[in-house]
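User: Second chain of the day. Same drill as before.
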Amino acid sequence: GHGKSAEFLKEHPVPQSLKVIDLAQDFRLASPDHDYVYGLPEINKAEIAKAQHIANPGCFATAIQLGLLPLAAIWLLHNDISVNAITGSTGAGVKPGATTHFSWRMGNMSIYKAFRHQHVPEIRQSLAQLQPGFDASVDFIPYRGDFARGIFCTEVVRIDSALSEKDIVKMYKQFYATAAFTHYVDRDLDLKQVVNTNKALVHVEKFEEKLLITSVIDNLLKGASGQAVQNMNLMFGIDEHAGLDLKPSAF
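Assistant: Same format as last time:
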């Protein structure tokens, strides 16, 4: 649980030689108080390989960042970013609650933590890592979805650039050319393409001066334990795909 990792480490001596991958949000933001590396391989692969301690990214944060990072890499994020993302019921964890009970969730949708979701600070941190001085607003509206797993995310960004859609797509493909699990796709995305896998898929369309970016992940794999295994593989010099060659629910 969030907050429990820091508490546990204060209460229990942990050998310096022990490698730790933390899935809570306790160490995701850089601080002089800890040495945890933010575990998003698409931008921190070299640092993860050398790290002793990893802060695994949040599920929403992973999906949203992977849609925006290529734009940050060429300094195109100067205007407010509108984000809508819908997650499955497993995104709420295992603790029962009124909004996670399936009889309530089935055939239903709702918004929660609009504009104040806890993943926004780590998203802003990664964007500023690639585009120093980034200060645009990330207006994130999360939705509870009528399904068990997966995140479907759309982002709308206005860019002050004459780049064509073809140029932007080329840049996305180049950015993810060496990524083990993140891929640019030339057609509209479906959530079932990634559910049960560690894949992240991204698609971009340009409408005049605005970009519509779509990204999809499985919140339990690339959004959580799958990414943790990917990070573990990097930390121990194992093939990045080890243990993660999984088949999607639609193929």
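The chain is about 30% helix and 20% strand.

User: Great, on to the next one.
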